[in-house]
Design brief:
about 290 residues, alpha/beta, 2 domains, eight-stranded mixed sheet, 11 helices, 8 strands, globular
Length: about 290
């Protein structure tokens, strides 16, 4: 049975936070949704589109009577928010987040929060290159996966409540250790975004001359490069080791392909593209 929350607080009411607010209200999971942010203008937009009912610029004040808090800020801001919440929220309140890096955040919570831990690490694999509350979508989480990264001393009630929350807004939940999560998303999400930015930069060096030869392949590959720079800055800085390892692995593969082309090695190139085609099918489970 889905739990109903009297007061849900969403810190960071952009695309993910705004969409969650709409879903909580549409499915009657929360009686009141309070949005917290740094800019009143953005919060006013979130309220105007129906994503939140109340606005606040102060997380501590907003969360004092909350029974659910969801942190939808950039990853680098989550640990400070956890510090602000630790001695502020009611003892029975449940806290989760949506950050796409988990090891640093979960380790900080385990080091600083009382046990059993009522913070539950989450990462919904939903979103787009669009950002801001004006793009909030009540169906954003439908059919998505949400990765949950439980702690060793996790409060079981809090864990099951967060799992039920994501399922209630349409997501399928998968459990992973925080470190493994960060390794996997470095390959599946963070490296692709860095690659997209690099491709866009290389093409843009030719200015207007490149436009007539831009096709759907370039548009598809570089779409995510339009995401918010500060979000991806923080992702890189909070998942440094896994991303550096992924970049090294990518560099090795690019160097190998370069050699195939430089040596006019038709057989090597064909094997490379066959391997890539098969690897894509395997990664997607086809």
């Amino acid at each position: 049975m889905n739990r109903r929350y009297n007061i849900a607080v969403i810190m960071g009411v952009g695309l993910l936070g705004g969409s969650l607010g709409l879903a909580l209200k549409a499915r009657r999971i929360a009686g009141l949704v309070r949005g917290v942010g740094r800019r009143k203008e953005s919060l006013d937009i979130a309220k105007s589109v129906g994503a939140i009912d109340e606005i606040s610029l102060d997380l501590k004040a907003a969360a004092k009577d909350a029974d659910l808090v969801v942190l939808c800020t950039p990853a680098a801001l989550v640990t400070q928010a956890l510090d602000d919440l630790r001695d502020t929220i009611p003892a029975a309140a449940i806290v989760t987040d949506v950050a796409s890096t988990k090891a640093m955040i979960c380790a900080h919570a385990e080091d600083t929060w009382p046990r059993p831990l009522r913070f539950v690490g989450s990462h919904p694999m939903a979103g787009s290159e669009k950002f801001g509350p004006e793009h909030s979508d009540v169906h954003l989480y439908d059919g998505s996966y949400t990765i949950m990264t439980p702690a060793q001393d996790q409060d079981a009630t809090a864990y099951h409540a967060v799992k039920a929350l994501w399922e209630a807004v349409g997501s399928k939940v998968v459990e992973l250790p925080a470190a493994l999560h960060d390794t996997l998303v470095a390959r599946s999400s963070h490296l692709p975004h860095i690659t997209a930015a690099c491709l866009a930069e290389l093409a843009a060096q030719f200015g207007d001359d490149i436009r007539p030869v831009i096709g759907n392949g370039f548009r598809d590959l570089t779409r995510i490069a339009a995401g918010r720079p500060e979000i991806w800055r923080d992702i890189c800085l909070t998942n440094r080791e896994a991303i550096v390892e992924s970049l090294d692995a990518m560099g090795e593969r690019l160097a190998a392909v370069r050699e195939f082309i430089a040596r006019n090695d038709a057989a090597g190139l064909e094997r490379f593209f066959e391997s890539g085609c098969e690897a894509r099918r395997k990664a997607l489970g086809k």
